[in-house]
Amino acid sequence: MAVDGENPYSWGAEATIYLGEFLGRRVVVKKRRSKPYRHPLYDSLFIQSRTRTEAKILVELYTAGINVPAPIIVDIENGVLVMEYVEGERMSEALGAMSIEAVVDAARDVGRQTALMHNMGVYHGDLTLANMIRSRRGVYIIDFGLAGYSTDIEEYAIDIHLLRKSVSTLHPPLLQPFMDAFMEAYKGYYKGNYEELLQRLREVSIRGRYVDRELRRTVMRERYLD
């Protein structure tokens, strides 16, 4: 596999993204980085755990027909995940240039896929326009680095809250049509208690906060080092 290790494609909080080629296909290589502030043992366990979880979730969602990058290779020990490269434009950039009809269609697509994902007990953890790609095959959801499994409806509400916050921040005039179409599609596919989810979404919005990631890290650290 050929990888351009000298020129990272992007640099996230937890991982570095490279572009490469594998068996004639363009691929994305995600390499999680060690953090000097983490205990070496915890750092290794954290990287392996997050890599394993992200790969497992991608396999399950891809198999279920949800538009996510196809996982190709996973190296849990070294925190490396190789995925399909999805050609297209980030929704964070594309949305403003789209017609209202296209915005509504895209929002419905995302709403359907998000509901199906939540039905599987999976939350994304960072469901924003920046983590969606508009391609010729539809809207793809990417970057499941903060994703996880949960039956807690608050996790699903937080996903929707983050998406709404993303649209309102980047494209305020499109917030109403986008979220109306998203919620309409979501309601049609979501198998849980929709009214309970709406109530939890209102509570999350009133609190006006994001997921406390430091608390999550503390819980995970205690879980692995006990």
TrEMBL record:
Gene3D superfamilies: Phosphorylase Kinase, domain 1 (3.30.200.20), Transferase(Phosphotransferase) domain 1 (1.10.510.10)
PROSITE patterns named among the record's database cross-references: PROTEIN_KINASE_DOM (PS50011)
SUPFAM superfamilies: Protein kinase-like (PK-like) (SSF56112)
Keywords, alphabetical: ATP-binding, Kinase, Nucleotide-binding, Serine/threonine-protein kinase, Transferase, tRNA processing
Catalytic activities: L-seryl-[protein] + ATP = O-phospho-L-seryl-[protein] + ADP + H(+); L-threonyl-[protein] + ATP = O-phospho-L-threonyl-[protein] + ADP + H(+)
Listed Pfam families: RIO1
Domain of life, source organism: Archaea
Enzyme Commission designation: 2.7.11.1
The keyword ATP-binding is annotated on this UniProt entry: yes
GO CC annotation terms, alphabetical: cytosol
Broad EC category: transferase
Gene Ontology biological process: tRNA processing
GO terms for MF: ATP binding; protein serine/threonine kinase activity
Domain Protein kinase: 3-226
PANTHER family: EKC_KEOPS COMPLEX SUBUNIT TP53RK, NON-SPECIFIC SERINE/THREONINE PROTEIN KINASE
Family to which the UniProt record says this protein belongs: Belongs to the protein kinase superfamily. BUD32 family.
Protein name, UniProt field: non-specific serine/threonine protein kinase
